[in-house]
Fold each of these.
Amino acid sequence: MWANSSVFYQFYPLGMCGAPHENDGVTVPRIRKIEGWVPHLQRLGTDAVYFSPIFDSDSHGYDTRDYRVIDCRLGTNADFAALCDALHAADIRVVLDGVFNHVGRGFWAFRDVQEKKWDSPYKDWFHISFDGNSCYDDGFWYEGWEGHYELVRLNLQNPAVVEHLFACIRGWVEQFGIDGLRLDVAYLLDPDFVRRLRSFCDTLKPDFFLIGEMLHGDYNRLVGPGMLDSCTNYECYKGLYSSFNSMNLFEITHSLLRQFGPEEWTLYKGKHLLCFVDNHDVSRIASMLTEPRHLPLIYALLFGMPGIPCVYYGSEWGMTGAKQAGSDDVLRPALDAPEWNELTDWIAALARAHKGSRALTEGSFRSVVLTNRQVIFERAVEGERVLVAINADSAPYTAHFDAQAGCATDLITGAYHDFGGGSELAPYSAAFWRVQ
């Protein structure tokens, strides 16, 4: 699967392109702005772009009105097709948000039910009871997403709903050439629907990538043969920033051993989960870390650990933004042009190292040295071993361990490293040692 060795980049287009918060019905080709970011994405080492919702919606994109047309605030289908052409020409794949658990109140089929009630042919597309009423006084009750009644839950056990969704996905492949889908709130989706989706997508395009948003629980419930290729690794997301803020690298290492360690009982060995330090739903990592000098280190850990690394737009140059109660707008700002600084240089170097090493994209995981403030772990495949070393302390640290080799090359900097007499790590430093 192509995604397993890729570096992902996430856009939240409605925010990034400066669209009005509410759908104003005015068509403006704002999505074309992202074409100007293609050279930045290439320089950063991006292999795939994941777009948060782009289809016609009431407000924030996850309240879909029509899966068949691009939100007018972003432009037209032709505008998005042109962007996809530009990305594909740059060898960057396209993954869209598949918001299939629920739709907005403006969804065309739900509006038909509002108008015709019992007489609507779409009443069974939703979980509706005409014996009750909604908080919007619709004259019937319906199930919303986790109590949010602006988001109307779809009935994915209705064959007509599934056929409509699959027809839309086919249209996305034909019009835009998309290479995969990220399934919103996958943890709520019916596993039978996921199986049918997998089988259908396999007919559309070779290696069509399916990833699910999983917040908790056993990821194996939806990830595996005949199901999803991957899911979001929220367990390690929390462990990443918490380990640095509490100066307790045991936390993230424990999670990685639990997920990918050498024992037979390891949960996700052989799977490639999507890893991230921030996204459109959580505070920017630069606002989460209590020590700014840990920012390059958390990205080193992200690119060195098992999984598919994903960078959220703007965070590659250290953009800040703390999540606020009642609104995620601060996490999804409008940006005219990308920026580049030392952090961006560092992330680009990490991306090159990650993609240039089978050990880092496919290798096993083994803990070698572990303290509260330092960690060294091994990623290995046949013919290649890489030791990922991080010192989160303000003081230098010398690690004494059997490297099973005399010397190494740092995949990030190209520097030679001699293991003789101990391996010294400078304060707030990271290295990817490919042993020789």
Amino acid sequence: MPSTKPDTRRVAADIANGYCKMSAKGIETLSSLLQPIAVAKGERLLDEGQVCSSMYYVERGMVRQFYYKGNRDVTEHFSYEGRIVICIESFILQEPSRLMVEALEPSMLYGIPHDRLHRLMEVDAEIEHFYRKVLEHALISSQEHADSQRFENASERYLRLLRNKPAIVLRAPLAYVASFLQMTPETLSRVRSAHVD
């Protein structure tokens, strides 16, 4: 009977390919950190007030980070295949998060626990380099999104998302995409209609 054990080494190699070059030994070390977790659609990985004790690599599916502002549900970030989801402030400080993370689709994730990662970083330069690259990627992505909100109109924001991350437009619910782009669903519908070929 074939094994159903997750191939963490292959997943570790996929993660490394997305963020930085790693030696075979580094990939093996990274694979030792990975904790597979299957998440159902609508299931939360993190609730407000919980500590983000792991960052997660999305092998399959899509998740979103969001928060409540008054009675409004605000989507801050989407992660899907080949990307890592991390609530940076909570993960770094190991303090309660104001963000929540939920699966938008049935998803297969691999957790990288904070404490084990930091212990390895003290003795393994490759793992430290990998972590730095993950943080750099997350910070740049966050800055690009913030700049888009500040400097681009609704149409430009939508076209940027469609060009750079079409999976979000194709797979995420319209209300969450609109929230992410800081517009109403009605505005997003108008913008989309204007750009249909």
Amino acid sequence: MIDVKFSTILRITIVPQVVDMIVKECGVNELDATNMFYRSQTYKYLSDEETKMWHFSPLTIFNIWKVEKETGEVIFPEEGLL
């Protein structure tokens, strides 16, 4: 289970910014963008505090999501190898 404090950080600071980028990039509404992100492997990794993925900027997380959408693979930036 996700720690409440960690979950709050995701919900308030990171996820809304990534969702906004998905809305702009994909031309979908906020609800669809939110569902797209929450159903992704990228979000699965982000929500796992152990991966430390939350250290990445929302733009980097969006780009990881975008690559996943295009290729089906989650590829971390070199400095973020797990």
Amino acid sequence: MPIGLQGYTTRYRVYTAAHVEETYKKLSAMGYDGAESGLGGRIMSPEEDIALLKKYGLKVADIYGDLSKPDEVMRRAELYGVKIVGAPSVPNEMLHSVEGFKTYAERLNELAKPFKGTGIRLQYHNHSQEFRNFPQLGGKAGMAILIEETDPDMIVFELDTFWMSAAGCDPAQWIEKVSGRIPIVHFKDLAIDWKAEDGGMGQVYKRFAEIGQGNINWPPIVAACVKAGVEWYCVEQDRTVLDEYECLKISIDFMRSIGVK
């Protein structure tokens, strides 16, 4: 079960080619298997980035690109040796209605059409807003609409454990809903901010935490991931209190201890 880094975690540490190499070296030493998108994608050419990845024995889980230029995206995917390409999130104006979610599902299907027959699939990554519920559909969540109304052969989902938990959902249950359609999962823990001044009822201030340092129940999530066919477990911590690399070490050590091997 490869473990990768989502580069947003180290965004304040990676500005140059030397920083990219330093991060790859640290990841390799910690036991990470790769990263999403290639950390050097905005700093150097794909060829230079790939050379550094190979130097440290790392791979890339997925890429992002301009889906209005599918030929360019396909070339980039081929260079990095990946078959998963990130898709954009639902625009805010579409989040407020059933029709908005249905329309966006249609848009995802259209974006995927140029990639049919290539082996490439588009990947949707959630936050919390996709889990808003619609009473006219018996409480169905917007995410369920996206899952049900997108082409299962072309659209996959990169579910995020923090954002599902923040939305009040059971991550394991939702991972099961997309079994066979979740090649990559975001592992991210949710904790309560111990520095929050207001600790009264209802005033629960959430924070991002290292894996195993928060309140998420990980064993059933890991079991659900294995059953659903997850191929990459990518660590992301949007904000850190400790040094980012120290956080990444804590996370991977915990993940290996609970069976992500």
